[in-house]
Design brief:
Elements (H helix, E strand, L loop, with lengths): L9 H7 L1 H21 L9 E7 L2 E6 L2 H8 L2 H10 L6 E6 L20 H13 L4 H12 L4
Helix pairs in contact: 5-6
């Protein structure tokens, strides 16, 4: 006997489960809110994340006190903009995020150290003078990484 296959997509089948449907709905609402808020002019250049929505109250986490002050000044117009976009938000609470926010703005390439000729020579001399030790291995790795050899 063949098992019956559901014609529902995995997402649709999850939406039928009471435990996951509200979570998926909240995630979708949060994503929509982020898109609306990212287009807000007062938030250009500000790193923030949208927090939970409880009833008609939204929490936004910002990265710095300056960003918090800047955003606080435009809260009434932001609430009006959100309501005009169909969101049921009557209050916004701002909070400074104490741990770093994960954002594309914060993702940067690591800086590459620039050594003068004297510094390169000093590192190579140090490597040559050291006996076998973890410090010598570290200086070899540094010299190899920066292509001093």
């Amino acid at each position: 006997m063949k098992p019956k296959h559901s014609a529902l997509s995995p997402l649709a089948s999850l939406m039928q489960e009471p435990q996951t449907s509200s979570l998926i709905t909240q995630a979708a609402q949060s994503r929509r809110l982020e898109k609306i808020i990212h287009s807000w002019p007062s938030l250009r250049g500000v790193t923030f994340s949208v927090g939970p929505i409880k009833k008609d109250k939204l929490k936004i986490f910002v990265s710095t006190p300056a960003a918090l002050t800047r955003l606080r000044q435009s809260l009434p117009s932001l609430i009006q903009h959100l309501q005009g976009s169909g969101m049921n938000i009557n209050e916004i609470q701002l909070q400074i995020q104490t741990n770093p926010l994960t954002s594309k703005q914060l993702e940067r390439r690591p800086k590459r150290a620039v050594f003068s000729d004297a510094a390169k020579k000093a590192w190579l001399d140090l490597e040559n003078r050291l006996g076998d030790s973890p410090l010598k291995e570290a200086t070899q790795a540094l010299n190899k990484h920066h292509k001093f050899k």
